[in-house]
Amino acid sequence: MIILGIDPGSRLTGYGVIHQQGKQLIYLGSGVIRTEVDDLPTRLQRIYAGVSEIITQFQPNVLSIEQVFMAKNADSALKLGQARGAAIVAATNQQIPVFEYAARLVKQTVVGIGSADKKQVQHMVTRMLNLSASPQADAADALAIAITHAHSIQYSLQIAKAGQVQLTGNNTQLKARYSRGRFRLKAES
């Protein structure tokens, strides 16, 4: 399974792509979509185009993205929500299921502490994926979101022996079923 993680932002949107083979996570790529313009509609268009290009390049099976959180500044929260929307639409236009994760859960999964800072996330992502250098902070956050999805899948597969498990994303359910000694994943809209 190829997982695209997105750390949305109206000026910098981080992305990270990993390939999950069983319990092994393989780094495929990461970076930042820089909008570098002042007007919001153009920034959103560049986020949409950038995510669409990444999807074309890596052909991910799922997109994992950070959930909306309440910011101190309402204007910033609205812009973040719009950036998320541009990335989500890029994925759903190509029939890619979208899964959302809270920032605290991502930090807890990767670092072990829900209040971890960006440096700690960078360090752990670098170690977990055996990278020779730390990725840029926004790219590391996106990789952490992808890792969180991979761990959610692994956890679901482990408990699937007891029955059937469902992970739910935007109008899509990812069902894990254990039969004949093998796990099977199936995305249903």
Structure description:
It is a single chain. 42% of the residues lie in helices and 30% in strands. The chain has 5 helices and 8 strands. It has helices at 40-58, 74-92, 103-110, 118-128, 137-159, and strands at residues 2-7, 12-21, 24-34, 62-66, 98-101, 164-169, 172-179, 182-188. The strands form 2 sheets. The chain has a 5-stranded mixed β-sheet. Strands 6-7-8 form a 3-stranded antiparallel β-sheet, with helices on one face. Strand 7 and strand 8 form a beta hairpin. Helix 1 runs parallel beside helix 2, helix 3 (103-110) packs across helix 5 (137-159) and helix 4 (118-128) crosses helix 5 (137-159). It is globular. The model is unreliable at 178-183 (pLDDT under 50). It is found in: Cytoplasm.
General shape: globular
Task: List the total number of helices.
Answer: 5
Mean pLDDT: 84
Ranges with pLDDT <50 over ≥5 residues? 178-183
H/E element sequence: EEEHEHEHHHEEE
Rg: 16 Å
Instruction: Sketch the major β-sheet.
Output: 5 strands, mixed
Strand content: 25-35%
Helix content: 40-55%
